[in-house]
Amino acid sequence: MVESGALGVVGAGVMGSEIAFLGAAAGDHVTLVDTDPGALAAGLDRARAIAQRRLAKGRLTEDEARGIEGRIRGAESVSALSDCAAVIEAVSERMEVKLAVFEAFGEQLGADTLVASNTSGLSITDLAQAAGRPQSVVGLHFFNPASVMPLVEVIRGAQTTDAVVDRAVELAKRYGKTPVRVRECPGFLVNRVLVRAMVEAYREAESAGVDPTAADAAVAHGGPAPMGPFALGNLVGLDTLLSISTQLEGAYGPRFSPGRLLADMVESGNLGAKSGGGFDVDPDAPPTKAAAPVSQRYYGAAIAEAAACAREQIADRRDVDLALQLGAGWETGPLAWAASQGIDETDTAEV
Ligand code: CAA
Q1: CATH of the domain at 218
Q2: What is the pLDDT of residue 348?
Q3: How many Å lie between the centroid of ligand 1 and the Cα of residue 47?
Q4: What is the helix, strand, coil percentage profile of the chain, to 5?
Q5: Nearest residue (CA) to ligand 1, atom 35
Q6: Which domain holds residue 215?
Q7: Residue finishing a domain among 183, 210, 229
Q8: Same-domain check for residues 228 and 313
Q9: Are residues 324 and 198 part of one domain?
Q10: 122 lines ligand 1 (CB under 6 A)
């Protein structure tokens, strides 16, 4: 079955509003839900601003932009989603918040609704249980900025049916994305590799006294990633990144430890692009020799984690590389890049 018609998106943050745009751009009527009226208004504005930006760039006609904007409406309760063919949850990355939303899904959504979570690494199986209908729940993980990055990770929970996984794959394709099926594990595939590399770079920069601009220049010029880890943290949201790395530290150990630089930024309320503030970086700065170790640690960690994911069959080697290219904009995936540089993937950072 190919989904069409009505999409519900729960959580009107950056991710939720970008996903709402994608649904409306594919022709669906989208209801964006947030219990906070201010957040809802901001999310609706954000989704409509994407259409306006594309109109200004000549990528949409006026009619198309108006059509997209007209297909997105707001609501303050999940009860507005009872007729949706598919619902995607994109609330804050905290288990207790998501569990409450999934319990509401169990009570309020139609029996045939495809229920997806955009969690970046929490257990789909646990969320599915909370909904009381585990067979129809699946992970659909988009990447920042979701209106631009082509990848969607599709994650099946322990009880997700094949038919539901297929419907999720079709939905992702209809929204113009490339779905990659990923076996469930904390962080799934791309975040496991990317967050590992990012926090490794943060810790190295802190201990070597390298500032964010120099660290970013080293990474952006030292391998296939399109931007450095500090600018990327600002883009993803530093509170989201701290929460993901803390969860992954709990699951995998100290190689995911966020370090002080990140924790201090979040404590001071500087959360990156969404709050204003964040790490101070100049994307045009040239690379310096002194910062080269940050780049080595960044790519070494990414390669080691990517190799571990392939070994554990989280995805096959080709999809591991493809996912980093499509989800994080890498010119070449980490495993292919390691091979091209003569880097032994079993001899990088510890996993
Ligand atoms: N929000 C929304 N759209 C943005 C954006 C932002 N912060 N930054 C750039 N864009 C859009 C631009 O408007 C432009 O859109 P159009 O094509 O519709 O005009 C498009 O992205 C390309 O932008 P630019 O040409 O200005 O810039 P670029 O070529 O340097 O690309 C980038 C910008 C796409 C962000 C690129 O640098 C990139 O791929 N970076 C890596 C991003 C990444 O790793 N994302 C994954 C993060 S992990 C995650 O999201 C998972 C999680 O669970 C936390």
Answers
A1: 1.10.1040.50
A2: 67
A3: 15
A4: 55, 10, 35
A5: 145
A6: 190-341
A7: 183
A8: yes
A9: yes
A10: no
